[in-house]
Design goal:
The chain is of the alpha+beta class and about 325 residues long. It folds into 2 domains: about 130 residues, NADH Oxidase (3-Layer(aba) Sandwich), CATH 3.40.109; about 160 residues, NADH Oxidase (3-Layer(aba) Sandwich). It is built from 10 helices and 8 strands. The longest helix has 20 residues. Bound molecules: flavin mononucleotide (FMN).
Length: about 325
Amino acid sequence: MQQNYDPSATPWHINERDYPSHDSLIEKEKFLLQYALLAPSKYNIQPWRFDVNEKEVQFWLDPACWLTASDPNRRELHISIGAALENFLIAAEHFGFGHTVTYFPEAGKPEWIASVLLSPNGSPSPFRKDKKLFYAIINRHTSRAVYEALAIPKVDLNQIKNCCIESEIELYLTDDLALKKEIDELMIRADALQFANSAFREELNFWMKEGGFDASWIIAKMGRLATAYLHQDGSSPDGKQNALSHAPFLAVLYSKEDDHKAHVQTGQVFERIALSAASLGVQLQPMTQIIEVPQCREEFKPLVSLENAYPQHIFRLGYGSREKSHTPRRPLNELLL
Ligand SMILES: Cc1cc2nc3c(=O)[nH]c(=O)nc-3n(C[C@H](O)[C@H](O)[C@H](O)COP(=O)(O)O)c2cc1C
């Protein structure tokens, strides 16, 4: 049967009513992948590529997306693909599929990140059965607004915490103002070290155009850097500069191992949290520069009592205005191998 959705339409306009319920498994898998590609990714780089057949859906990493300056170990590329994988699994469960995920199916093919085998009549996993996660996929976005000094209710915070179910990945949350200020300062230092590196600046410049994301937050970041250095007399910069201190919560996802499977799983947990937060009206922004600069990552560990673990992803949570529009996505037909 002919597919009844238009793969060239704006990816954010996907509608569950267009699910090709009478078509082949391959057409259904392609439909579900339209949710995968709405995932967040570093610099909106969208490093995922997909291979689809009657047996399985394969998730591949596009080596052309390698950020050699800011992500030499490809840690964040794997986190990004993990987020896409999670969207796919949530959508698959929403349409009644069970699934088996195999991570890194073939030794010697490090870019083959995962294979997903779908089975009909699956029951949703306990942590994905909340339909709100599925519906949040098309609403989620990164918010770089200044967050209000409003506490997140305990019940909502618990819902966010409950997204973290993998035994390998854990969530650290803090609302300690003094600690957030200390981490804010470390972030400014990490930014300064990154911007001093010409390879980092060139890479950022290239992907700002490729990823098509709004550059105003980078400019704000540079303003923050300038303000931080202009305030070396001890006076404190205004609220807009201290984005983290003003957010109710700082969150850190960390793992016991620092291998690529842990990175992919971090991405899965992160996306579940981002969707859960979106469904609760809580905004979120990753702030990952500390982890990208090795010396800052080491300095960060004792601040959050994670001496024997690996911080993988840092983000702030709170209430702020929504972005005016979604960041662009490549259509599925450009991503199929
Ligand atoms: C691994 C990873 C790292 C990211 N790091 C940052 C960051 O340091 N600062 C930031 O503002 N956004 C960061 N982001 C958010 C991306 O820029 C954002 O997901 C992308 O531009 C797509 O926009 P969207 O999330 O609104 O769909 C990160 C996202 C991921 C997945």
